[in-house]
Amino acid sequence: MAIRSDKIGQSWLLPLAVSELIPEDHICNLVEVVVDNMDVGEIEQKYSSGPGNPAYSRRMLLRIVIMASADAIWSSRKIAKLAHENVVYMYLTGHEKPDFRTICNFKKECEGLIEAAFKETVTIAKALGILNLVHISTDGTKMKANASNKHTLSKEEIERIRRIIARGIAIDKEEDKLYGDKRGDELPPELNTQEKIREKIKEIEEASGQKMKGTAKKIIVQHVLGDEKDKAAIMKKLDKAEEELTKSGQGVVSITDPESRFMENKKKRKELSYNPQITVDHGSGIVLANEVTQDCTDHYQLQPQLEMAVENIDGLPEWTKVSMDNGYFNGPNLRYLEKEGVDGYIPDSQQAQKMNGKKVKDGPYSKDKFVYDEVNDQFICPNGEILTRKGEYEYKGKLQYSYYGANCGECPFKEECAGKSKQRKITSDDYEAERRRMAGKMCSEKGKEEYKKRKETVEWPFGNIKQNMKFREFYTRGLENVRIEHNLVCTAHNLRVMWGKLGGSVATLCNIKGLVANFAFRVSSI
């Protein structure tokens, strides 16, 4: 058998265009079309004037960060490296070589443009007929923040740090009177060894009567050793931590990412996380809307997600059915669905447990066995006795109603229903009718069949994002930054889905260009 000669270092008589080295079915062609049809004129105008070297094109930077997301690359340094080495990225940059700081700053400064790119993928999917919108589902997942569970502070620790720092500043002022001012860029003689630093901390702790450990002690050490700029940054960090601690209502706050929250994941482990939300089209798998929240539950995400989806697809068809798990089952959400005329399917906690094959305690006199008469606002017990509203009270900021008054004394089932020497009482709120209607719908065969679509709609995009795209935790810190990351990952997911369904041909790209010209997303408001 013959062996081909080794051709390393061989020159081409006529150099090839970089585009000729890229396969026609490569997804970068779709990335190029989507981004090139966006109007970025106004945002680029912000960078077109002023002193210094010309800024890189925002369109070019957007192309490579989206392409990197589709390739499951999240590091700005790695993207910058690819612009030097990879023909796909050389093509998308037009042979430009932005450094990692430029790429990183672009993500922060142009978050509106990144959000617009996500919306553009939804617009194009609709224009190409990929969306069918017969059934859509919303769900959330707990995703780990870029923060350690150990680096946290309680309110007491923050206050203690402030007291110790204040005492340390007082001691420093006294020493300045004795020894004079230093240049400011070197350690003073009394702090030029680790032993002296420990002694200084000990002195401050003894003077303030407070002992510190772990994260709190590190902050104090940084304050002792830092210059004026460092000290100001530490105080700002403490202010932010205290603000987020008050806002969250949790016992401790992360000092590395104060905006993250302790949440319980599927492994029943509590860790610092965020709660990303997505709304997905059942027929295509396209993410219609996405958001990242700090809420530990999904209770308040139904309305924002549906409103976002409606905006992105320019209206929800009247035949669309919507499903969500029991985390979204609450009165305000159910009333919102009815008010908006949305055909929703959400099980209550008992129904969800039964669907998952779990045993549920279900007695003959549990609350759901009492019929609710909406017209007269009363409950009717299984033996025909009536419980009327007798009082109201506030619980955790919500108004609750008490229903009782049935003739329980003569009932042969009194002990089983109400217990010894008690009268049966039912507690409810202003949303009982909506809960009963939804529960009735979910008991029907149609309701069960529709709800089955939820898992095959919204679970696999999360699986694709976490497993195939290797996005299992956030890389940046702060709510604003993680929202940028999540927009990028959802954009990449949509592009992958679209490219797979369209077959990735040149003819398809030509069709997209023609359609997108009429459906291009405008970003003039950015």
Contiguous low-pLDDT stretches (5 residues minimum) are 183-187, 519-526
Number of separate strands: 14
What is the alpha-carbon Rg in Å? 30 Å
Strand content: 5-15%
Amino-to-carboxy terminus distance: 63 Å
Shape verdict? globular
Largest sheet: 7 strands, mixed
Task: Determine the number of helices (DSSP H or I, runs of at least 4 residues).
Answer: 19
Quickly give the structural class.
alpha+beta
Provide mean pLDDT, rounded: 85
Q: Helix coverage percent of residues?
A: 40-55%
Q: What is the chains' assembly state? A: single chain
Task: Tell me what the structure shows.
The protein has helices at 28-36, 41-45, 58-70, 76-85, 87-93, 100-109, 111-127, 155-179, 194-208, 214-225, 228-248, 302-312, 331-340, 349-355, 414-418, 432-443, 445-468, 479-502, 506-519, and strands at 135-140, 143-144, 152-154, 252-254, 261-264, 270-281, 287-293, 321-323, 343-345, 371-373, 378-380, 386-395, 398-404, 426-428. The chain is α+β, with helices and mostly antiparallel strands. Among the domains are: 18-133 and 479-519, no CATH class; 152-254, no CATH class; 382-423, no CATH class. The strands form three sheets. Strands 1, 2, 5, 6, 7, 8 and 9 form a seven-stranded mixed sheet that branches. Strands 10-11-12-13-14 form a five-stranded antiparallel sheet, with helices on one face. A two-stranded antiparallel ribbon has the order 3-4. Strand 10 (371-373) and strand 11 (378-380) form a beta hairpin.
